[in-house]
Amino acid sequence: MKTNFIGAVVLCAVISLTLGSEYQYYDDNNKTCIEVKTDVKFTLTNGKETIEFDGTNFTVKSGDCASPSESVATLILTTVKEDLLSLEFKTNAQKEASMGAMFTFSPDEYFPETPEATAINLIDTGDQILGNNTQLFQCNSIQTLTLNGTLKDTTYTMYMDMTNTQIQAFDIKNGKLSSDVFVCSADQMTTTAQNVSTEQVTTATSSGTTEATTATTNVTAQTTPTTPNATSEAPTTNSTMEPTTKANTTAEGPTTAPTTAPTTAAPTPMPPKSTYKVMAGGKTCLIMEGSFQMMVTINKTTIIVDVPLSNEVNVTGICASKNETESSITITPKSGPLKSLTFDFKINKNKDMADKSELVSMSAEVMVDGKVEPISANKTLLVLSNPKLFYKCDVGSNFTADKVIFKYEQLKVQAFNVENEKFAENGEDCSEDVGPIPAPGNIPVNTYAVTEGNKTCIVFKGSMKFVIPYVAKSGNATEPVGLPEKFTVSGSCNTLLYGEVSQKMEVKFYEDWILTIHFTDSDNKTDVQNQLTADSSDKYYISQIELEYEYNSNLFVKADESILGKKAKFTAANLTLWETGKGKSYMCNKESTINLSSKDGFELTVSKVQYQAFKKGNSNDFGDASECAADEETNSIVPIAVGAALAGLVIIVLIAYLIGRKRSRAGYEQV
Question: Do 426 and 565 meet the contact criterion of CB atoms below 8 Å apart?
Fold first, then answer.
């Protein structure tokens, strides 16, 4: 679901000064769909050094609201170091909600003596239970999430210590948080309703003034148990945070607990997308399109300024010839508070990596309180794409310049090498669109399920990483690319592959990547009318693996510019992989590497794998497992060792017995 998170950044930037750390995400109607409000302290350590920072270091970057039929919602926060804190909210079949966390960062940014390395993901060791998915979670006491990860033999740990916390990610109706509150056990709050405290919220208006909103609400918070047994406690996980809630089921009705329902203001909506072109010699030489908005703060006055549509502005600029490395675009509105806006672009030459076009400066003039105020930022604001390609960022983000936060959505820009009056055929996605990329040594274990109607026919669990060959600037190379935690699944429970009865699972990730795995019945084929035959086989296996992917600089950092933006597809057919029986699953916990192509080195490395196809019913549970040889070998080590030890003991006892008999006989003969 597409959401207007840029407005969320504006709101957070204003209210976090008075309400601690508050992160909100909005749906298409600019209504709150995710709310996280907490006073949070982060403690990051590598075992030797410790760094502390608070929640004000983070702003909202992107997210995904959960529709009524969806069970997952996400909120992604970022820092000025471009670290990512991904919060994932889940609800299960019992309508229990929980929150997990993943922190992505580069260790050398925090620990200077650390050798420069790729980013690492720290994963929480146990999710935070949030109660029922219709409730607002509330906990004033300290609650801690612990996140761990290991990179190059160093274990990193981050503690999220949260107090004065309110969280809701599901069933927020019309942008208003639920009055039904799930209270953590640590609070041990009283069961009488109380008046909500008065809150003062300061927001910026489009006229440049500030408005103070005071809200006093009398709320009766009903704590509903999350299990059918009204006297039981809510389930817990292996997290150190185990909130519970109880209800009194006497005739007087359920118990109540106080809550604080924050006053929320709708963000300023983004303007429509528009396209701006710089012309030279009657031809387009620079194209930029998107939805753009500025939050300008001069002294104590803050105004929101939209960049007008292309038919409401004049566009000029400087084009770069074939060998030049600088270009610019100037947008001059015909009316309104924005008087001019200029972006300067430059090509950054790299030896080992592909060249990059960059947005290196911005300048603007804005009317504030009757006076034209200059704004400028002479620094690299955005690293874009290879100069021969376009740069795209649909999710959008923001950058901060002098006195302004500049926000953008649906951005697409090409500042160099424009041909035929249009964008290049290929482009590169921003990191926000691609999503968090797991480190090669920390690939998550995901569960994928294919469901049609009320039938779940495929369940696949495991950690998967492809080794993909590509052309780097230094020559032929390979890149390990793991499947991330964020993905979508589709597929078919009834299809054909080369005339054989099959099922398939399609996993989409990194925006444009698609992994397709085909599962084939060992014996079944089709009849002459191409109809599926009866289910006669008792075996099935993985028969084909396909990967559609795109060469982009987010994943192939050292790629040669000749392949950037291009899509590719690899197919490994005629496989007979991991065969098992109908009604059973295949399991292999040991890491193993499958050589999908000896010609070019295309490999798939898997671990902690379990899968079952041709399932019956609607459960995601696995049937009895057929273990792989590697697991069976591991499982046999203990009995073999025990047997060897017992055999050795028997031999020792026998030798001792023989020695004893020999000595006794010698003594008898001597007598």
Answer: yes
